[in-house]
Structures are given as C-alpha cells and as structure tokens.
Amino acid sequence: MTRRLSTERLILLLGLAVLGLGALILWLVSRDAFAPAAPTPEERAVAQVHDILGRDARVRYTEPGRRLAVCGYVEDAGQTAAFISRPNRLMLSTDPLRTEYEQMQRDFCPGFLTRPTPVARP
Predict the structure, then answer these.
(1) What is the 3-state secondary structure (H, E, C) of 50-85?
(2) Which of 74, 66, 65, 69 is nearest to 46 (CA)?
(3) Are 112 and 82 spatial neighbours (Cβ–Cβ below 8 Å)?
(4) CA-CA distance, 122 to 63, in Å (whole number)?
(5) Digit-coded pLDDT (tens) for 45-99
(6) Where are the alpha helices (DSSP H) in 31-86?
(7) Is the predicted pLDDT of residue 117 greater than 60, yes or no?
(8) Whether the predicted pLDDT of 9 surpasses 60
(9) Is 95 in a helix, a strand, or coil?
(10) What is the spatial distance between Cα 22 and Cα 6, in angstroms, rounded to a whole number?
(11) Which DSSP category does 115 fall into?
(12) Number of helices and strands (H, E) in the chain?
C-alpha cells in the first residue's frame, strides 16, 4: 500500500526548506562569505606600480609604513626609484612634486631612506 503525501504537508516541507535556505544564506552573507578577499598592502602596491609604470616594472623591496602605507623600491627600465603607496595613491621619488613626496615620507614612512644614526662608542 503506497502512502501519498498530502498537499498541506508538502507545502509545509517546502516552506521549511525555503526558510532554512534563507537563514543559511543570511548567515553566510553576514560572515562576508561571498565577498572577495581584500589584497594585502603589498599586493596593492604592486598593482599600483603596474598600473602606473607598466607590467615591466618590478617591485624590488617593500616595508610597511604607517596607516596602511607601503614604502619600497621599484625598478623600471634600469632605473630604481623609491615609492610610497597609499590605498588611493602612489608617489614615486622621481615625481615632480618632490616636496609632497618628502612630506608623505615623513608622515607615513619615517625610517625609510634614512641612514641609521651611528652609535657613539666609549
């Protein structure tokens, strides 16, 4: 003897399945499961260098700065230049805005491009 599922029971099961899937999707969205991973500051700096100088430019050295800044050196066509990368801007030491570059260096990368002070020996 075959047992049939009544229409009311089928609607109830499908409704529960929809509510369960909705709750699962809401939980995943609240955990940013579908959001792309944000690039690291170093990856962002490399992308900025490639956007401005082209794919042939190579980032040779990076170090973290203050407030999401990255300081480093880039080599392009045999020339080496220092750079400071912020989330919305990249400045090179060869930029015509030299004063602005130096101010950014003091603010975001205070130890970059400076020689260590010699230690006095007794």
Answers:
(1) HHHHCCCCEEEEEEECCCCCEEEEEEECCEEEEEEE
(2) 74
(3) yes
(4) 33
(5) 899 999 988 888 888 888 888 888 999 889 888 888 888 998 888 888 888 888 8
(6) 41-53
(7) no
(8) yes
(9) coil
(10) 24
(11) P
(12) 3, 4
Q: 3-class SS at 60?
A: strand
91, 97 Cβ separation under 8 angstroms: yes
DSSP state of 31: T
CA distance 82 to 75: 9
Match 């602005």 to its residue by tokens: 100
Whole-number pLDDT of residue 62: 86
pTM above 0.90, yes or no: no
Which tokens go with 45? Answer: 């700096």
Helix (H) or strand (E) holding 86: strand 79-86
Intra-chain end-to-end CA distance of the chain, in Å: 102
- Tens of pLDDT, residue by residue over 12-33, are 999 999 999 999 999 988 888 7
